[in-house]
Amino acid sequence: MTVSDHNPTRRRAARPRPTIDDVAAVAGVSRGTVSRFLNGGHNVSGTAAEAVGKAIRKTGYVANQHARSLVTQRARSVAFVLSEPQERLFEDPNFNVLLHSCTRALATHDLALVLAIAGEEEDRRRVGRYLTSGHVDGALIVSSHLGNPLLSELVGRGIPVVACGKPLGHERDVAYVAADDRDGARQMAEYLRSAGHRRIGIVTGPPDTPGGIDRLAGFRDVLGEIEPALIAHGDYTHSGGETAMACLLDQAPDLDAVFVASDLMATGAIDALRHAGRRVPEDVAVGGFDDSSIALTARPRLTTIRQPFARISAEMVRLLLGQIEGETPAAVILPTDLVVRDSA
Amino acid sequence: MTVSDHNPTRRRAARPRPTIDDVAAVAGVSRGTVSRFLNGGHNVSGTAAEAVGKAIRKTGYVANQHARSLVTQRARSVAFVLSEPQERLFEDPNFNVLLHSCTRALATHDLALVLAIAGEEEDRRRVGRYLTSGHVDGALIVSSHLGNPLLSELVGRGIPVVACGKPLGHERDVAYVAADDRDGARQMAEYLRSAGHRRIGIVTGPPDTPGGIDRLAGFRDVLGEIEPALIAHGDYTHSGGETAMACLLDQAPDLDAVFVASDLMATGAIDALRHAGRRVPEDVAVGGFDDSSIALTARPRLTTIRQPFARISAEMVRLLLGQIEGETPAAVILPTDLVVRDSA
DNA sequence: CTGAAAGCGCTTACAG
DNA sequence: CTGAAAGCGCTTACAG
Q1: Distance between CA atoms of A74 and B225, rounded to whole angstroms?
Q2: Same structural domain, A228 and A153
Q3: Of B329, B333, B340, B334, whose CA–CA distance to B151 is shortest?
Q4: Helix, strand, or coil here: A80?
């Protein structure tokens, strides 16, 4: 550990960072010229540019983003807001991919991502304050449950926002990008039926989320009205899937396939089936949804519906940048793919 | 969708945010007084405070963070830097917990977390530039591999940094907090031995990471010199664990237990064992490391060593804040716990 | 306790 | 192409 001579618990103060004036002095030009050089180099002569470039290297100059933001009124950063119940955040691998691919997509535009977690009431207020204080130019938000007050606040404040998944209750005033949940569910239902299954159950997502609603709707599109014994509701967690499957097994012991509305729940469902002595897929075929990382590590590997997360992220970022530039909100729906592996 | 009268793809410009001067005008005081009110309310009379509070509510004022940072030289935000190979980022549930608990720990201090991913060379340069431009007051970094140039750059620039896990090659100049890897491995080795196992193999982490080195060392502390056939190296991924286990089975078909240096690899090892027709734990006991979320969803549920992630995060944040205030770097080592479940 | 003023480090019309 | 100047929205000594 480096130890200062004067005070063993203090490190020597970092030498002050060079400013644009230092660079200007070294280069022998005005700070206006340095600034122009930094911002695209328009109206800067070759000689000046060269001198400035050299001076920047020599001084180790890096622009102070706060000073820049103060005048440009642009933060060059964007928030990624996770507004979901605690359990889901820690468990669901979907958030991982989404977060990572959003970070990458933003880096492409040289934008930083600040992560905000607003699971509970109190967080929401703090995050709301943060988002409205000019820290960021806009927000990407994942909040699947109906009636999130944070969303209303952001919209009210005029903060550019784009949601991941249909923002129930705000479909018309906030931009969003979503996979085609309904059609994805149709693909799975058709696949299961065409594989010869006749008693097909479903574990849905929560009925106040788009995935909970639309995936059930798509399932019905193909299979018609479902008898209640073949429907159980889950909460997108592993143990939720386990419980729902146990319930289904209880109500309809003769089912030969089940469509589970998320991969994580599907792994829970498989555990419940195994616990009940049913083999997957021999006795009961299991279809998931998401194609998250868990689909590959689960045993048997999951047959599932792929959500194009990388593309979703890219579209979210595109939409957000558009709104920051003044465009009105829009919705983008992306197609899904059936991925056949071992569980069905 | 809201549509402007004049240009269908543009939304009306948001009305400008109120500034501190607007508040001062409404409250009938100077902006100095408003500022003092905002910063703790020292030297502000009761009457003034009341008028200002009312004015803030009336105008909906929120301080502009950039202006504030420009003068205070404090960003009030911290970077969380993930500098790991791509595969690990998407798969390993440890990062999840760590990221979430760091976000929470920072929120406690009203600090924002900006997520930076620097997997490859190019990212590192971008992230390096970002971190040194005053955007953040410091960085929490997870980068387990030896010789990460980003770490050297940050240290060189005098940016406060604290690493998660021992920063190989920088143990003496960067602060870090780590679980006691070596002792954790000892706990597991002792447990396996006391359970009666006699041929105990190990799947290590990469030999250029602290977990790769210290967990093997702890294993040896208990079991003495290990014959080479009982050692295989993994890369902390699921498939890495699978491959390493297959290799172990090949070299030492008679082993009756294995310590796998991460839970994710342990799930891969279990798959390899199952594939080879061995039952877990009856034929081969499997011990993991981390107690990540996957330990509970894996079948059988993993017997593992718990890393105290919440505490690790809290300590990281504490150390970082200390450094921002001028303290010299320090190292914190936290104890681990054996968690016995079904796999061993 | 309060206000007037300087200054944080930039960008961007405006003259030239 | 270039420099001098104003201004972004705050905080913080400094007088009073």
Answers
A1: 60
A2: no
A3: B329
A4: strand
Residues 6+ apart with CB under 8 A from A289: A184, A185, A188, A211, A215, A259, A260, A261, A262, A263, A266, A304, A305, A307
**How near does any CA of chain A get to the CA of B143, in Å?**
16
Per the CB < 8 A criterion, the answer to whether B290 and B94 are in contact is yes
Question: Measuring from the CA of residue B24 to each C1', which nucleotide is nearest?
Answer: C3
Please give chain B's pLDDT, 344 residues, in tens. Answer: 333 333 333 343 456 789 999 999 999 999 999 999 999 888 899 999 999 999 999 998 989 999 999 999 999 999 999 998 877 877 888 888 899 999 989 988 889 999 999 888 888 888 888 888 788 999 999 987 888 889 988 888 889 999 999 999 899 999 999 999 999 999 999 999 999 999 999 999 999 999 999 999 999 999 999 999 999 999 999 999 999 999 999 999 999 999 999 999 999 999 999 999 999 999 999 999 999 989 998 989 999 999 999 999 999 999 999 999 889 999 999 999 999 999 99
B221 and B257 part of one domain: yes
Contacts B15 to A, Cβ<8 Å? 158
CA of B66 to C1' of C12 (A): 19
Give chain B residues 11-40 with Cβ within 7 A of strand C: 29-33, 36
B34 and B107 housed in the same domain: no
Decide which of B29, B63, B97 is a domain's last residue: B63
CATH number at residue A48: 1.10.260.40
- A194: contact with B, CB 8 A cutoff: no
Query: Which among B2, B238, B294 is the nearest to A328, CB-wise?
Result: B2
Chain B residue with Cα closest to A8: B328
b/e sequence A24-49, b meaning 16+ C-beta within 10 Å: bbbbebeeebbbbbbeeeeebeeebb
In A, which residues are within 8 Å of B174 by CB distance? none
A42 and A88 together in one domain: no
Report B:84-113 residues touching A (Cβ under 8 A).
89-91, 93, 95-97, 99-100, 103-104, 107, 110, 112-113
> CB-based contact (8 Å) between B221 and chain A?
no
Domain enclosing residue B287, as ranges: 181-306
Q: Is B71 on the interface with A (CB under 8 A)?
A: no
Q: With an 8 Å Cβ cutoff, are A328 and B11 in contact? A: yes
Which domain CATH number covers B81? 3.40.50.2300
- First vs last C-alpha separation in chain A: 57
Q: For residue B157, give the chain A residue with the closest CA.
A: A14
Tell me the C-alpha distance between B254 and B286, whole Å. 14
CB neighbours of residue B308 within 10 Å:
17
**pTM greater than 0.90:** no
Give the nearest chain A residue to B269 (CA atoms): A297
Asked if residue B232 is part of any domain, the answer here is yes
Residues A123 and A171 in one domain: yes
The answer to whether residue B69 is domain-embedded is no
In a domain, B221, yes or no: yes
| CB < 8 Å to B130, chain A | 112
In angstroms, the CA B47 to CA B27 distance is: 10
A326 with A236, same domain? no
Query: Is there a domain that residue B1 lies in?
Result: no
Number of domains, chain A = 3
Pair B132, B24 in one domain: no
Residues of A in contact with B330 (CB under 8 A): 1
| Nearest by Cα to B313 from A117, A25, A31, A258 | A117
